[in-house]
Amino acid sequence: MIDTVNSWICEIALLTSGFIYIRTIEKREKFRRAALLDAAIFLILAGILIYIVKTEISFGNLFMRMLEFLVIVHFMCVARKLSVKAGIYYAIWAFMSWQILYEIWFMIEVSREYFFKENFIVSVWIECMVFLAGYLIAAFTIAKWMPEKGRKKIGPRQLSAACLTFCVFECIAFAQQNRALTENVERWSILHVSQVLLAVVLYLQNELFKKSEMRQELDMLNFLWKKEQEQYLLSKENIALINQKCHDLKHQIRAIRQLKQEDMEQYLKEMEESIQIYEAIVKTGNEVLDTILTEKSLYCRRHGVTISCVADGTLLDFIQTVDLYAILGNAVDNAVEAVEKFQEKEKRQIDILIYKEKKFLVINVVNPIKENLVYEEEGTFPITTKKDKHYHGFGLRSIEHMAKKYGGCVNIHEEDGCFSLTILIPLPEEREPHRSHF
Fold first, then answer.
1. Cα-flanking dihedrals φ and ψ of residue 134, to 5°?
2. Domain residue spans in the chain?
3. CA neighbor of 279 nearest in space, from 316, 242, 312
4. Alpha carbon 34 to chain centroid distance?
5. Are 110 and 182 within 8 A, CB to CB?
6. Is the Cβ–Cβ distance between 18 and 91 less than 8 Å?
7. Are 46 and 11 spatial neighbours (Cβ–Cβ below 8 Å)?
8. Which residues span the membrane (predicted)?
9. What is the DSSP letter of 314?
10. What are phi and psi of 422, to 5 degrees?
11. Are 340 and 303 in contact (CB under 8 A)?
12. How far lies 354's CA from each of 411, 424, 436, 437, in Å?
């Protein structure tokens, strides 16, 4: 009787450990039914494991544990916004934490039975306290530190290292189930310390991979920042040169018209209209924004793309020149790249809104998309469609990086064939709105 109760407590503790590591991850909508189904399946497997495979290491025991592992992975993925790889990684942590606590309880139980008489209530109480204390410590330390802002991204190298560590850990765990080993306290202690060290190694791996990823992204963002700085200076010079040439050509055309050559009138009219395209300077109240929009509008006119903009450029004065160019340059470039895939003229349209909402600066760029984008995980940025993925796909991350620099955030949304990028940045002070349309 006591062995059965203890076994059920252990199995319920194993299922609970799966929740400990995902409690800080963003929830999925309407996940309860699927989660309850997974919990029911897990308990059925646990019952089979308890009543059929009671003692000795066996293939049946190993097989049932593997099934329980898969159920916990599925439970994590349906309950939280996790990829399968992240679910496997957290399930590894759940199993390892449970196994370490189980071994601690088992050793306490063996020592207690050696010195005192067997007591059912005391045995159950000790088991519950060991798991409760262990899970509370894990919940407010490792489980809280591992996710980064409610998300967890796992690469193939990190997952492979975690799986290898887990396999070694489980080999030690199954070895400890051999009674000949558990009778020797010293050998048991060595094996248990080995398990704890493997858990420490797994955590250090997590921190190293996290820092490596942050370093790579920072290097790429710095690279993009320098490129944006160079591009801004070049674009400003080009637009100044174009404006000067347009001004000179207008005077030349007027001089030719004074000659009254009627056969050249139509030709000159067409030439003047074409020149007007390159003199279409945008006036929003912010020099940097004017430069960006003028440059982008020139490109879009040449390629049959229409940009509609309602902007209060004075709201952008507190953002540094290069940062603003990185934010808007990347946002418009991504939108242009998306609409150029359309043949229909009415779909080659980009809408830009820059306005104040309460105490926030809002930058909203909306454009049609030809097909739904693919995301690494829910709530993350879409995967780049370009072939050279190592040097592309950093546009949105660069925008997010710059927005966070000013205490802001980035939100992306897809609906009815349109992609919407919204950037929210707190305004440092109140400003009177002054909107420019073009």
1. -65, -40
2. 2-218, 282-437
3. 242
4. 24
5. yes
6. yes
7. yes
8. 6-22, 34-53, 59-79, 86-108, 120-146
9. G
10. -120, 130
11. yes
12. 15, 10, 10, 11
List the one residue out of 124, 126, 111 whose CA is nearest residue 1.
Answer: 124
Which tokens is 25 given? 């991850």
CB atoms within 10 A of CB 61: 17
Q: Are strands 306-311 and 349-357 parallel, antiparallel or unpaired?
A: parallel
CA distance 216 to 220: 6
- DSSP codes, 315-336: GGTTS-HHHHHHHHHHHHHHHH
Which residues contact residue 258 at a Cβ distance below 8 angstroms, ignoring those fewer than 6 apart? none
Instruction: Report the DSSP beta bridge partners of residue 412.
Output: 421
d(CA 290, CA 264): 35
pLDDT in tens, 250-291: 766 666 666 655 556 665 666 666 555 555 556 677 888 888
**Tokens standing for residue 401:** 């990086």
Superfamily covering domain 282-437? Histidine kinase-like ATPase, C-terminal domain (3.30.565.10)
Q: What are phi and psi of 56, to 5 degrees?
A: 70, 145
Burial (0-12, 13-18, 19+ Cβ within 10 Å), 34? middle
Q: Starting at the edge strand that comes first in sequence, how are the strands of the sheet with 436-437 ordered?
A: 409-415, 418-426, 360-368, 349-357, 306-311, 436-437
| CA neighbor of 87 nearest in space, from 5, 28, 169, 11 | 28
The per-residue pLDDT for range 132-169, each reduced to its tens digit, is 898 899 888 888 887 765 566 777 888 888 899 988 88
CA distance 236 to 224: 18
Q: Which two tokens stand for residue 386?
A: 């370009």
Please tell me the distance from the alpha carbon of residue 121 to that of residue 127, in angstroms, as a whole number.
Answer: 10
Phi, psi at residue 424, to the nearest 5°?
A: -110, 125
Of 289 and 244, the one with more pLDDT: 289
Give residue 222's identity as a one-letter amino acid code. N
pLDDT tens profile 2-22: 667 777 888 888 888 888 888
- Residue 77, both tokens: 């993925």
H or E segment and range at residue 219: helix 185-257
Q: Which of 198, 212, 208 is nearest to 167 (CA)?
A: 198
331 neighbors 421 (Cβ within 8 angstroms): yes
Q: Rounded to whole angstroms, how far apart are CA atoms 33 and 324?
A: 46
